[in-house]
Amino acid sequence: MTESPGSVIAELCRLATPGAIDETRVVALGGVPQVVSIRGRDRRNPIMIVVHGGPGTPLSATSWMWQRPLEEYFTVVQYDQRGAGRSFQHDDSAALRGALSLDHCARDAVELAELIKGEFEVEQVCLVGHSWGSAVAARAVLLRPDLFAAYLGVCQVVSGVLGEEASWSWVRAEAERRDDRTALAELAGIAPYPRPFEVSKLIIQRRWVERFGGVAAGRADGPYFTNGDLAAPDYSDADRASSRAGRAFLADHLLPQFIDLDFTQVHEFPIPIIQFLGRHDQVTPTGPVIDWLNRLEAPAKIVTWFEDSAHLPMYEQPGRFLVAVLQHLLPYAPGPSPR
Q1: Bridging pattern class, strands 21-29 and 32-40
Q2: Which pLDDT tens digit goes with each residue over 280-304?
Q3: Composition of the chain by helix, strand, coil, percent to 5
Q4: Which of 179, 186, 232, 284 has the most Cβ atoms closer than 10 angstroms to its Cβ?
Q5: Neighbours of 197 (CB within 10 A)
Q6: What is the CA radius of gyration of the chain?
Q7: Domain extents for the chain?
Q8: Is the pTM of this model over 0.90?
Q9: Architecture of the domain whose range is 5-332
């Protein structure tokens, strides 16, 4: 019998240890149904909640590429945020239009942390945010620092305006360096950028950032990330359709708020903050992040550079990602509460 690629990956990802957990459930967070997955080889391990980016780009569709080794040390909780991924098919999109903001998403993360904390009887959990999810996660920490032992930002969003200005300067300079007349013409057509902000302008700008290696270092595209759900072991055709529809929905109703994200006025962070930064990242350029961290007061600040990565360090350097998580995040992770 010939196995499909998806079934082979599913078997590879199957957790067979006696204390393992592998569950996917629909949970109402903020009154909105959201798909939550919980995986780990030993449910006694510390908890890591992962907040995906986009908005509208769940990591759950592609985390089979890098997450499995982490599951030996953490119970990893992922969720498709309101309106995103597999959650969109369960949501009332008409009602959701008025309930989409950074704070809505951050309060969902807080509610999920409370739920997981109670279910697993732990005092605190670790929180990880990637890209847009780093803004959601950072905001969740500021709302409820008592829930979280440490925060790991992967390709941190600090300021929508400052990030886009830095990305814009880089992509124009790169187009000139390459003497790419098509790129120069298209970029000139969306100037001034990023203000006034329009999603259509962002799409064009990001296309050239990707073409020039600012999304995946040394690559002109990243189909393993953008189309990875085609091989996802737990994604159905309906899930894939939901994910694509959700991405379009959030592009209209949440992405326009991205430009207004701003943590530059946050001068104190209440828990240890760890940053994983891709040296070639031009989606969330690292200059504004370093400037912010230099001014930020926190119990601990750790910066780890991924020299061969851009915006996708866990995919581009999965070995280094694992080692860095174990070195910098795991020491802060609490074990189970006494029973």
Answers
A1: antiparallel
A2: 999 999 999 999 999 999 999 999 9
A3: 50, 20, 35
A4: 284
A5: 17
A6: 19
A7: 5-332
A8: yes
A9: 3-Layer(aba) Sandwich (3.40)
